[in-house]
Amino acid sequence: MKSKIYPSPAVALDGLLFDGMTIMSGGFGLSGNPESLIPEVRGSGVKRLTVISNNAGADGFGLWMLLESRQVAKMISSYVGEN
């Protein structure tokens, strides 16, 4: 059985990211979000993302990073508070 533990976020996402893809992120606010994967997605330069999550993070943290870099075309959220 192949291990689900990867040595780095870059290795975990290798070959998976493409323009126009949908990403679903767990967590609530900044708790439980994939904080090591989000910067890797941002750095990949993928565009036109549809992101599904409870919310959009907070200034400079979480999914906000992808919004800030204008990589998100559509955001689907169940909680829109101070975002």
From TrEMBL:
Q: Which top-level group of life is the source organism from? A: Bacteria
Asked if the Swiss-Prot or TrEMBL record annotates the protein with the keyword Transferase, the reply is yes
Q: Name one Pfam family in it.
A: CoA_trans
A GO term for molecular function: CoA-transferase activity
Q: Which Gene3D superfamilies match?
A: Glutaconate Coenzyme A-transferase
The record's keywords, sorted A to Z, are: Transferase
The answer to whether the entry has keyword Transferase is yes
Instruction: Identify the PANTHER family for this entry.
Output: ACETATE COA-TRANSFERASE SUBUNIT ALPHA (PTHR13707:SF60), KETOACID-COENZYME A TRANSFERASE (PTHR13707)
The name under which this protein is listed is: Succinyl-CoA:3-ketoacid-CoA transferase
- The organism named in the record is Sphingomonas sanguinis
